[in-house]
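Comment thread on ticket #2218

A.B. wrote:
> Attaching the input chain for the structure job we discussed in standup.
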Amino acid sequence: MRNHLPRLCLGASLLLLAACGDKSTLQPGADVGAQPTLKAPNKTLIPTVNIAPAKGWSAGAMPTPAAGLAVNAFATALDHPRWVYVLPNGDVLVAESNAPKRENGSIKGYVMGKVMAKAGAGVPSANRISLLRDTDGDGVVDLKSVFLKDLHSPFGMALVGGTLYVANADGVVGFPYQEGVTEITVKGTPLAPLPGGPLNHHWTKNIIASKDGGKLYATVGSNSNVAENGIENEENRAAVLEIDIASGKTRLFASGLRNPNGLAWNPQSGALWTVVNERDLIGSDLVPDYLTSVKDGGFYGWPYSYYGQHVDERVKPARPELVAKAIVPDYALGAHVAALGLAFYEGSLLPDQYRNGAIIGQHGSWNRTPLSGYNVVFVPFKDGMPNGKPVELLGGFVNKDGDAYGRPVGVAVDKKGAVLVADDVGNVIWRIVPDAR
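C.D. wrote:
> Ran it. Output below, let me know if you need it in another format.
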């Protein structure tokens, strides 16, 4: 125990000092939209650490839906549900998952581990995908089964023909699927490796299939905040990769995206869109996380610049030739909201104003004062592009004392047109429908 005391004391001291970090000075909403306000960087000696401690939902409590909508618990008693995927027959798959064990003995890694534990992300990974079925159609699961087990921090899922592809923390694996089955016991077949390794800083890997079923697109987050672990450790990271299903070959589709997660095809333009978590430690007002279309061959700035050509002076050596190519994202979601889930609404159950817009699960900030995110927002679209300010679709995840009842992650639209939200602190899947009252 004696050998750990210096690290424990230093870690506790850093957490206490971090509470003295900077505060936002922007007007609410100024860092949101197609033309966000970007302040000058504020690189403080002590980073801002401001966490909504994870508490979970008390009996009978639930989030607050937007006017005209209602919410209920679709499934409960889950184990850190991160991602949801709806099968053609209406069954819902949920990845119960968390970060794999990492080899990082640094003080920074130790402190970040304590921060994440306080935020509800310190539990071991269940490493499974469960199947949820609502057999009587009342909007509440009445059949739950372990669909796949002994996975490696699974996240994204995609069904192509008779194969269900699962994105583990280090690669994509395919499993034979037959409609209606409640369990798969055969061993999966590896399709393509994804960047992993002992650090695997951003471990979540999401996938989506092309419309013709010939390709998978995979998100891979960076292995650092701003390449401080060495740019050589960022190969095929901070990127969207394209995987050819027939051959398993992978190519870099788009890069400079610090931590992309949700992927969705725009129903109007057909373009691929993603939500991205931007960099930390330059102030409560920088950098806005964002929603953007993903261009083949596009470079979006990380780590050398942010939001287009705004140079990050911390990154050495500089790469002005890359900065000059950096694409400005389409739509800012606000600083540090931790946008993860993404789905375009193509259903008909919700009111017409939600048609074709983007639904985004925002996990919530850990290094901003005041808190940001911790909600599900809707961004209206027109002619394939964002059109207007976001609307809070589901809120109430943080109480008046600053404690987090839950934290939204993945979002999906079920077969009836209801919106499903994975809550990895509340261990619930919420279901949003029109208010019948």
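A.B. wrote:
> Thanks. Noting for the ticket: Confidence is low (pLDDT under 50) at residues 1-19.
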